[in-house]
Every structure is written in C-alpha cells, then in structure tokens.
Amino acid sequence: MIPVTEFRQFSEQQPAFRVLKPWWDVFTDYLSVAMLMIGVFGCTLQVMQDKIICLPKRVQPAQNHSSLSNVSQAVASTTPLPPPKPSPANPITVEMKGLKTDLDLQQYSFINQMCYERALHWYAKYFPYLVLIHTLVFMLCSNFWFKFPGSSSKIEHFISILGKCFDSPWTTRALSEVSGEDSEEKDNRKNNMNRSNTAQSGPEGSLVNSQSLKSIPEKFVVDKSTAGALDKKEGEQAKALFEKVKKFRLHVEEGDILYAMYVRQTVLKVIKFLIIIAYNSALVSKVQFTVDCNVDIQDMTGYKNFSCNHTMAHLFSKLSFCYLCFVSIYGLTCLYTLYWLFYRSLREYSFEYVRQETGIDDIPDVKNDFAFMLHMIDQYDPLYSKRFAVFLSEVSENKLKQLNLNNEWTPDKLRQKLQTNAHNRLELPLIMLSGLPDTVFEITELQSLKLEIIKNVMIPATIAQLDNLQELSLHQCSVKIHSAALSFLKENLKVLSVKFDDMRELPPWMYGLRNLEELYLVGSLSHDISRNVTLESLRDLKSLKILSIKSNVSKIPQAVVDVSSHLQKMCIHNDGTKLVMLNNLKKMTNLTELELVHCDLERIPHAVFSLLSLQELDLKENNLKSIEEIVSFQHLRKLTVLKLWHNSITYIPEHIKKLTSLERLSFSHNKIEVLPSHLFLCNKIRYLDLSYNDIRFIPPEIGVLQSLQYFSITCNKVESLPDELYFCKKLKTLKIGKNSLSVLSPKIGNLLFLSYLDVKGNHFEILPPELGDCRALKRAGLVVEDALFETLPSDVRELMKTE
C-alpha cells in the first residue's frame, strides 16, 4: 500500500508559515488528507485485488427438429445419472459440480481483461485515480503561493521579521509601558488630543499645536531607572528591526501579488469543486456490481456473451458518496473564503484597535500585500499584528533611540564636551546625533545648548532642570517641543540661533519667546519676505534687541520694522542678493548697530543718515565705488565705528574730516591709491585699517592720531613710513607687511606699548636694535622672516623670547 507520507511534498511548507494559514485553510488541509486517503485506498485495492470476474452465458437459439433431438440426446448423455444411494457397507462420496464450460484459467483471465476494458464504465475503472489527482490539485492550489518564487520570498522575509518582532524584548517593554497606564491616564491623553485639535482656532493654540506635542505623553522621556532593562545588544537588535520593517514595508506595499495569487488559487479550487460535483453526481450511478459483457472473442473462447461481477463496485460506490461529501464541504469552505476575500477590503489594514488599546497613536495604516498578510495573521492570532505594530510606530522608534542615546551619552561623557562659546557661556555642542539625550538635562550648569544636524529633536519638559540655560542654537534641526518646555523657554531663553535649509525647519514656537533678546536666522527665505506669515510674528518678541538675518532677502521685512521700537542691532547678510527699498530703515530710530553685508549696494543708503542713534555701521562686501555721501554722517553724532571694507572704493573724500566722533575706521580690501591728509583730522580714531589697497604714501599728519592703537597697511605699495607715525605712542598693533619698505626707523623704539608687529614681506636687510625698547613686544608677536630676526642683537632676541 502506498503511504500517504509520499504525497507530503505537494503540501509541505515551512512550519513558520502556519501563521499565514487561517482556519479554513487548515480545515481544507485536513479534508484534503481525508480525500487523499480515499484515493490511495482505492488505488491500492485496484492494484492488489481482482478487478472483475466474468462467466460465459449459455445461448439456445431456435434449431430444426433433428438438431433438437441431437441436442436432447447430447444433453441426456451429459446429464448425470442419479447417484446411487449410499449404504452402510458401501458409502459413496458425492462431488458437487456446476455447469462446465471447458475454459481454462488463461481463457478466464483473458475474458476478465477484455470485459474490464470493453464493458466496464470508465468512471468505475478510474474513480480512485480521479480522486487522487483531484486531491493533489487541491493541495497544490492551497499551497502554491508558499512555493512561487515571487511570493514565497516576501512571505519568508515577512515571517522572519514577524518572529523577531514578536520575540524582541523591546516589544515586550513598549507594550508593558502602555499597558501599565490606568484608564484615567488614557482618558487624559484623549482629552489632551481633543483640546489640541480645537486649539487651532486661536493664535496661541495654533502656535503650540503646530509643534508642541501635547498629544505625546510625558512618558516619552525614557525613565533612566529602567534603562538597564534593555542592554546595548538588545537595543541595537531592536534598532536594526526598525530599519528592516521600514524597508520591507516600502518593498511590499508596492504590489499585491500575494493577494492576487491567493484569490486566483481560491477561485481555481471553487471551479474545480463545481466540476467535480457536476460529473461525479452524474456518473456515480455507473458504478454497478453486475456488468453485461458482449465481446467478439468466440473464436478464441467459444463464447461471446458474458456476465461479469465488478468486485469493488459496492465499496467504490460507498467511497464515491463519501468523497462527494468531502468535496462538498471543501467547496463550501472555499466559497466562504471567496466571500471573505471580496467582502472585506483586504488590501488595506487599519491599526485603529491597536492604537486605542496601546495608546501609540502614530501607528500607520498599511496597504496591498502588507495589509493582506496582516489580515491573514489576524485569523491566526491578533497578538502577532499587535506586537508587530510596535515597530511601525515612529514614537516607539524614537523611544528606542532615546534609550540607546541615554546609554551611550552619560552625563560624565557630556561634561567632557563642555566649552566656552563666543558669548562667554558654558556651551555643550552636539553634532549629528540620532536625537537629544535625556542625560543632557542632568548638566545643571549648562548655559548654552548647540544642536547641529540632528533630526527629530524632542525637547521634553525636563529642560526646566537647566536653570542656567540662556542660549539655544539649532543648526539644520527639526525640533518639536513639549508645552511645559515651551513655557520654560519663554521665561528663560535669551539667545536663539537657527540655521536651516528649508523654511519648514523654522520652529514656529520661537515667536512666542517673549524674553528673547537675540535672534540669529541663517538660511534661504523668500525674496518677498514681508509677506511671509511666520516672520510677521516677530512683533511678539517684545524684548528682542539683536536681530541677524543671513539669507537672500530683497527688502527689509515689515516684521523687522514692527520690532524697531526696541531693536538695537540689525545684521543682514544677503549673499549677493541686491537689497532694495531701504526706506524702512528710517523707522528704526533706536538702532545703534547696523550691518548690511553682501547686499550689492552701489551707494550708501540715504535712509542710514536718519538713524541718529547709530553707533556702528558695517557695509562689508558691497559694490561701493564712491562714498561722497559720507558727508551726511556728520549728523550722526554717536557714530564711532565705520566699516567700508571689501568694496571697490577708489578714493576717500575730504568730507571725512567732519566725522570727528569716529574711533574705528576700516577701508581694507578696496582700491584706494591716495590717503587724504584730512582723514587724520578725525583725531579720536583708535583703530585704522587700510590694508589690501594700492596706497604708496602715508601722510605725516598721521602723527595727529594720538589715540591710535591699531594701524594696518598690509599688502599695499608703501615705500617709506613717516617719522610722525612713531608719535602715536599708544600704538599696540602695527601691520606693515607685504609692502616695499627697505628701512625700519630706529624711532620705533618709542612705541613702548607695541605688542604686535608685522614686517614680513618687505625689503628689510636689518632690524633696528631699538626694537628691544618695545618691552611689550615678544617673539610670538613679531611676524618676520627668521633670517631677518637673527640680525637683532642676541640680548634683544633673548629678551623677546622670554615670557
């Protein structure tokens, strides 16, 4: 007998695939096994037992009288005499005899085979084989999507990821945290979500709702007391699982081959069920116990008509009825499967019940093959999809990243990165991390926090622990903030710096920082910035004193004008974009410092002359050629710093003598050839930078500048220095390098406060030993060729080398 296990290969699949077999597939598999046993049993009987037994029929046709008499005589002669009666003395054994046919065994076998082939109906002959073939086809159809390469690869990948997600310690931890919430906490979270949605109607509500995460529970911040529950290795494995799930989702959601193949194989089974029921119902009556056989083999056997007995007809008849019952149940189950496939939208899957049960509100719905496999999983055990959903949640992923960050960045490690920034504050720079470690908020001495190239930064309420925090820098970071943290920043933050590539990276909550004093914005803004809704909110920054915009604006935004009443310093670095329509500057009457850098200005804006409180003006990297308007600066009595560097200025007008309040003046990186003597009538100048020009001569009137402390003519064409220069006895920095000087006057020894001297790149052959009288000048502050330094006396050299 053929063992049923030989047919296992037609339906065998990996044990893990059972999670994708709903109850109807399991039920039909058992029905297939029952039908397979019927087929195997019938085939075994066909092989091992006689199929049919035939006997010849006697025919007595009408004949003449002589023939009849001969036959009667023959019959009489062949009729056996009555047996003698037995007696006690002579017992007689009686032998039972039937009709003799004079056929041998081979002739009977021949007759049986001929009648089996010619007289027996084909259904009665091949019924077991039909059952076997149909059952194998059913089994192939049921498991074909597990074998087809295009679908099996997806299924194997999905089952592999599903098992890892199910067994991951992170899944258990995430679900245990949310299951630990009581119903009151869940209700509070739902109420917060509703209030957050309705708050969009108000201005303050829209501000917080845009980025402040009221809907995210405070438990998002990982509790460090339980951080040890997940070791580093498990954390890395969970992190890898998140990446695998993301990539798998992108791959599987592109098509619906699994759904299509499952529908097609189910339709095929239904069609086959209908065919089997149709022809079996019609032919089952053909299985008869007695069969009449008429074959023309009289020349070989002497007989033509035979009566045959189909030995397995009774059994096959019962088996066929049993088989029809199984097929009917199988078909009804397939019809139910079709109803389930078409009645429900299986190419979309919603995690709504998981979101409600776990409180993880950001689990996304999925579609196509991903959705279909999850529907199939639910038929096996809904717990699988619930645990799998944890790895679809961005909030859950962020919590895992947060945990890994906290383990990696301990408070001691963070303290090692502390440094003092340009504002003389204790700063912690964090660059290119996966998030913001919660351990940052344990460094209570922190004054400035700098975050650079960090995506999805979440500032929690625990930032309130940083009592000394005053400065926050966000460089190419997308930041969300908790409402409690926003309240803290509104009261404490003084300086905010934001560098962005896209305006969407501008945090809208920054416009509510009512105590903010300095705001630095670096990034690309629209040219018509005055119509930008986000920047119009600058008017709410009532304490803003310094505003710096490094962008590509075409005009001064109206939002800046709205804060002009308290704005003291404004910097616009325009990256070459022409700045026009500067009339709004006239309204900034309290402005003390103004920087218009790289704004493609060809003239000094007339609006500047209305800023009577202006103390510093920087017009760096513009296209200034003529500065005749400089005479109007005489009305700016408080102007002390004027920087016209990196332009194309060819001369300095004589009107500059009227700027008697100037203390710092920079004309470096221009095309000036002649210095007017009237320049030195500005006798309050302490800082004068004329480097990188075409100046050939320094007027002796420079000696009038008795307050001069810094003087630079680096990279010019000066051939000699006037002795009057050395009358400027307060001079501390003197840069005369890269000129055509050949002699350095011994009077340089009069500059007792000189601490920095650059003479490199000239034609000096010797340095005057009087340099030794400049007691503040050390070797580190003397920029000169080594060979030229050796021309100084040894005692002077030794004196300069000492600290």
UniProtKB/TrEMBL annotation:
Pinpoint the LRRC8 pannexin-like TM region domain residues: 1-338
What GO biological process terms does the UniProt entry carry, in alphabetical order? Answer: cyclic-GMP-AMP transmembrane import across plasma membrane
Q: Which GO terms describe its molecular function?
A: volume-sensitive anion channel activity
Q: Where is the composition biased (Polar residues)?
A: 191-209
Residue segments, region Disordered: 177-209
Q: Name one Pfam family in it.
A: Pannexin_like
Q: Which reaction does it catalyse?
A: iodide(out) = iodide(in); taurine(out) = taurine(in); 2',3'-cGAMP(out) = 2',3'-cGAMP(in); chloride(in) = chloride(out)
Q: Does the keyword Disulfide bond apply?
A: yes
Gene3D superfamilies listed in its UniProt record: Ribonuclease Inhibitor
Annotated localization: Cell membrane; Endoplasmic reticulum membrane
Task: Quote the PROSITE patterns the UniProt record gives.
Answer: LRR
Membrane protein topology class: Multi-pass membrane protein
**GO CC terms, sorted:** endoplasmic reticulum membrane; plasma membrane
Q: Which residues cross the membrane?
A: 30-48, 126-146, 257-279, 321-342
Q: Does the keyword Heme apply?
A: no
Q: Which domain of life is it from?
A: Eukaryota
**Keyword set for this entry?**
Cell membrane, Disulfide bond, Endoplasmic reticulum, Ion channel, Ion transport, Leucine-rich repeat, Membrane, Phosphoprotein, Repeat, Transmembrane, Transmembrane helix, Transport
Family as reported in the entry's similarity comment: Belongs to the LRRC8 family.
Assembly information from the UniProt record? Heterohexamer; oligomerizes with other LRRC8 proteins (LRRC8A, LRRC8B, LRRC8D and/or LRRC8E) to form a heterohexamer. Homoheptamer; inactive, likely because it is not targeted to the plasma membrane in the absence of LRRC8A. In vivo, the subunit composition may depend primarily on expression levels, and heterooligomeric channels containing various proportions of the different LRRC8 proteins may coexist.
Q: What is this protein called?
A: Volume-regulated anion channel subunit LRRC8C
